[in-house]
């Protein structure tokens, strides 16, 4: 079925060529006027490993032949997303009735050759996660863990995979989320800017089927707050009446320093013993760094609370000064 995005009218084109099997729990993408689809569930617990393309110019299906030392096994509920212009990535899914996966495969879309990867320290096995490519990174959110038998075990963790054609340069990292959405399977992830994405909907299975319609925006630049960096030695306590200074360097969830910052930053100090509070003097310098000057009223360990753009709950950081 085709949807005209200008008129919002549906149409059913005439299709030619061999027809792929009935398929559910699969993912597809478009590249150069061609729709790619891999794997899926064709009947009850009957998954497959077929790769099909639909030429959108002449509406002709074709089952693609692939090469490689090995190929991904049959599966459903996996991630299959386009990366750059030349590659696609397969992650996880489920094989048969009980086997959930967490393997990563790269498909060269020019040569149709598969490459197996073995990236350590990755997410637990799962099926039906949300998946999205951001530049050279694959984001994975949620899904059904290996704890459930057929259903259950919904996850709400967020992982990022650094993508590379050199397998040894690929690495996983789990990103901490403040105020994470509830665990779910089959959510939609859509990029809404260069640093943020929208998570929409999904399903939970226990104690009963619950279909979700909530939407959550997650910004990788600000949702995880700034990082406190001490200039000079890591001071264990502040000296009464003696001026000190440290720096705040906002970073995104991947630990990368930001280039352009226009944040409203305030810093409050509180003595842990006397509970006396006072404000630091914040001055901005480039690239994207804030200096904070402070003169403690008491010799004590101080808790430092950093507020960025008024978001106290999300952007709170405690440092021993």
Helix % is: under 10%
Radius of gyration, rounded?
25 Å
Oligomeric status of the shown chains? single chain
What composes the largest sheet? 5 strands, antiparallel
* End-to-end gap: 62 Å
Average pLDDT rating: 83
Structural notes for this entry:
This protein is mainly β and 321 residues long. 0% of the residues lie in helices and 49% in strands. The chain has strands at residues 2-4, 9-11, 27-31, 34-43, 46-55, 60-63, 79-83, 87-95, 99-108, 113-117, 126-127, 130-134, 137-145, 154-162, 171-175, 188-191, 196-204, 210-219, 226-229, 244-250, 265-271, 277-279, 281-285, 289-294, 302-308. Strands 11, 12, 13, 14 and 15 form a five-stranded antiparallel sheet that branches. It has a four-stranded antiparallel sheet with strand order 3-4-5-6, with no helix packed on it. The radius of gyration is 25 Å and the shape is elongated. Mean pLDDT is 83; it is low at 222-236 and 311-321.
What's a concise summary of this model?
With 321 residues, this protein is mostly beta strands. 0% of the residues lie in helices and 49% in strands. The chain is built from no helices and 25 strands.
